[in-house]
Amino acid sequence: MKSAFLPRWLLGAVFGFLSGPSHGQVVSSADNGFDIALEQQVKASPAQAYQQFLAIGQWWSNDHSWFGDATKMRLEPRLGGCFCEINGRRLARHMTVTYVDPGRELRMVGGLGPLQMMGVSGGMAWRFTPNDQGTLIELHYQVSGYTQTGLGSLAPTVEQVLAEQLDKLTQRLRAESK
Fold first, then answer.
1. In terms of Cα–Cα distance, which of 95, 96, 168, 98 is closest to 137?
2. β-pairing, 134-144 with 33-42?
3. What's the pTM value of the predicted model, to 2 decimals?
4. Helix pair 8-15, 155-176: axis angle to 10 deg
5. Is the pLDDT of residue 10 over 60?
6. Which is it for the CA torsion 55, 108, 144, 30, positive or negative?
7. What angle do helix axes 46-54 and 155-176 make, rounded to 10 degrees?
8. CA distance 26 to 48
9. Are 26 and 155 in contact (CB under 8 A)?
10. Confidence (pLDDT) at 8
11. Residue 68 near residue 61, CB atoms below 8 Å
């Protein structure tokens, strides 16, 4: 039986197929889930990197928003806060904030893009660690659950989409520091 919610063409349309270097890896994957770890070094301080991260509508890709306009996205850094997209009367909750250590780490739960309607469970952490070169930004996303086709096959595409977002954040930070 095919999913009535997520035809294969929709997975490609929402996640897209990207090219270019990745800043991380699929740590592990199986039919019941996957684990992705990404990192990027920036010259900004952890506080600057964290503040730019919170301004998610300034750097997230329009191609990976529900309504095609990432400027309509917001991220509320509080327990139960919303990583949401509000475009007029159209609303989408991408993830829910579960942990906040201002300037250091923010964690969320939920499924991004088509994962949302699969009923899977996902946990994402963004960490901002100071070092000699500025800040190491680390992104970790772990997803588990059941789908007819298995989640492991989605891991490379999800990794590419998240790598694109991390790249866009670091490009924004580099542009801000000039």
1. 168
2. antiparallel
3. 0.85
4. 20
5. no
6. positive
7. 120
8. 28
9. yes
10. 32
11. no
Contact predicate 115/122, CB 8 Å = yes
For residues 35-64, average pLDDT: 96
For the beta carbon of residue 49, count every other beta carbon within 10 angstroms.
27
Distances (CA, A) of 128 to 12, 66, 166, 169: 31, 27, 12, 12
Count CB neighbours of 119 within 10 A. Answer: 11
Question: What number is the average pLDDT over the span 109-114?
Answer: 92
With bands split at pLDDT 50, 70 and 90, how would you rate the model's confidence at 19? very low
Question: pLDDT tens-digit profile of 76-99?
Answer: 999 999 999 999 999 999 999 999
The answer to whether 170 and 40 have CB atoms below 8 angstroms apart is yes
Across 17-41, average pLDDT: 78
Alpha helices by DSSP H, the chain: 8-15, 46-54, 155-176
CA-to-CA distance for 33 and 52, rounded, in angstroms?
Answer: 30
Q: Which of 67-71, 75-79, 105-109, 146-150 has the lowest mean pLDDT?
A: 146-150
Q: Which of 27, 36, 31 is CA-nearest to residue 125?
A: 36
161 within 8 A of 18, measured Cβ to Cβ? yes
Residues in the chain: 178
Q: What DSSP designation does 149 have?
A: S
3-class state of residue 18 by DSSP: coil
